[in-house]
Design goal:
This is IclR family transcriptional regulator. The protein is of the alpha+beta class. The chain has 8 helices and 8 strands, in the order αααββαβββαααβββα. The chain is 40% helix and 19% strand. The strands form 2 sheets. Strands 5-4-3-8-7-6 form a 6-stranded antiparallel beta sheet, sandwiched between helices. The two termini are 19 Å apart.
Length: 257
Amino acid sequence: MQNQTPSYPIESVDRALQLIVMLQAGHRLSVKTAAEKLGVAASTAHRLFGALCYRGFARQDEQRLYRAGPALNQRTPVAVSHTALKKAVRPALEELQLRLGESANLMVLQGAYIRFLDGVESEQMLRVGLRTDGTMPAYCSAGGKAILAALDPADVKEVHHDGLPRWPTAKISTVDELARHLTEIQHDGYGVSLEETEEGVAGVGACLRDWLDRPVGAITVAVPSTRFAQHDLRHYAEPVRKAAAAASRRIGEQCTA
């Protein structure tokens, strides 16, 4: 049977593998935290990190925390096809549209841009239409911001190494300004766009994650700005976050490799 504890575990290998699993799930670990999780001395955790860094499985950031290294290949898109992603997320889109009465969308990140994969359009007379297969800079979109906020800051800078793509209604103008904005989104758990994709449209979005907690897309709700309750963002944010969490569970259940 799989996942059984070996009869004679090699402790150092087992501990290193535990660290790899935590790093691949997106955790940032200090030596002290890793030692506590593994139940070992800090010196042992430090030696394990040294070995993982040497082989590219870990790297230390500017805050001296360890995160996944290039050998774990975090930047490579997860093995989830767009067809499978749409199938897994569709029920959450439909439920979100019914709950809020507004258009709901699924999007994925492609470089510095997002691409709309699917959506359920509002039935109200005044509504935001679907943009299936359309693209726009991620930093303008609520869902795009949510995905960017889930990435390593170094990856966000690399994606925008030539600066932010021009967009007529953009309100963020520099990569540094975007980085500060993404920090707020990490804290809130959702992104907001106030007429940044186009005039008259507001949106709230949350990141979708795979079974290893890696970002694979986002769900958003798009609202005509004349109807958007900016003073009560929780009205949109809570349903969007719940829809994203439900969709992420389905992705984990249906799209595992």
